[in-house]
Amino acid sequence: xxxxxxxxxxxKMFFGKDCVKQLPNVIERYGKNVLMTYGGGSIKKIGLxxxxxxxxxxxxxxxxxxxEPNPKYDPSVITGAKLCKDNNIDVILAVGGGSVLDCSxxxxxxAKYDGEGWDLISEKVKATKSIPVVDIITLAATGSEYDxxxxxxxxxxxxxxxxxxxxxxxxxSFLDPKYTFxxxxxxxxxxxxxxxNHVLEQFFAKPHNAFNDGVMISAIRSxxxxxxxxxxxxxxxxxxxxxxxxxxxxxxxxxxNGSGYSGWPMHAIEHALSAYFDITHGAGLAIITxxxxxxxxxxxxxxxxxxxxxxxxxxxxxxxxxxxNKVISEFYAFFESIGIxxxxxxxxxKADKIEEMADHILENDNxxxxxxxxxxxxxxLVRILTASI
Length: 389
Ligand code: NZQ
Ligand code: ZN
Prior knowledge:
The protein is an alpha/beta fold. It has helices at residues 23-28, 42-45, 48-55, 73-87, 98-110, 118-121, 185-203, 210-232, 237-250, 265-277, 281-296, 302-312, 320-337, 354-365, 378-388; strands at residues 12-15, 33-37, 60-64, 91-96, 133-137, 149-154, 159-164, 172-175.
């Protein structure tokens, strides 16, 4: 059964080799004044910075650089919004990974708001105006290039906030897989783990249907196979292109049209970890995944595990619970095999913050909400975090 839904992705996607040649035609639609945003310099190393400057030689470009992973409200979003206001910016061009794009999405609304921008990001105030965002995404991971979300950290209050609103869809995204050849093994593994987790967050939902199951299992299979190739051969276009495309779809919502909303509990937990310890998002998720699965495994959820066991891993002739446990071990072994340390302690997370983080999650993400697939109270959150340490 396909449950009722509304679906709309207004982002225009350009995919493939040298698609960025179309950049000037796209940017021109919005105006001449461009805020170009980027991170710590990877785009300079791969020649993309020069390429963009060459393509946009007829435009007025103001730059905001140094956007960090787990992008910060202060200084990046605040500085970007001020640059937009001071320079009458018509369009924001984000060039980089999910962090650069998320920061740019936040800037796009804060620049059109006279109050404190954090009120928009924390959804106290609804944004009504924005500057269009165009992006060239250089890392296959978050799917920010094809979704309506951004995730911004406010270090002053230890908060990492997922802000989702249709106004945040990029106007246009350019995806050229060759710009991901230079992504490190670590980021390749973490980006893939992030996307696998995006699919799992949607797979474990009620109601669900066989069509979506098939699509999601195919997505996970593709991610698992292609990351191995990309780690071995970073410049393998076929593998990088499949990773890039699947990652873009994995967070867009299309995989859960007609299914229930799960509440994205693993993301709720990981965002607290990143807020407190600034860890890499995908690594945190990979570590949490098997422990969250162990926590929610019961007669009520067993069918989801069995479906994964049979359709994704091809297991047979096992009791339901044996199959579920084998699914959990398989995910653990897979994440370990792509180089993710499977204990949070190895990423610098301290056990003495577990209680505080559990309280923070309950306060900010409501893992007990009615919509949550399996509600997690404080004791459950503490168990998951403790098992993950
Ligand atoms: O800063 P630079 O020098 O560009 O280096 C980056 C950064 O150090 C580097 N990198 C990016 N493209 C590269 C490259 N290095 C070599 N070659 C390239 N082509 O990779 C490092 C990590 O970049 P980052 O943008 O932080 O990674 P990612 O794309 O995984 O983004 C992670 C952020 O997105 C959020 C996460 O929480 C985290 O803050 N998420 C956003 C979502 C969304 N908007 O929908 C959903 C996700 O669940 C996630 O929460
Ligand atoms: Zn994620």
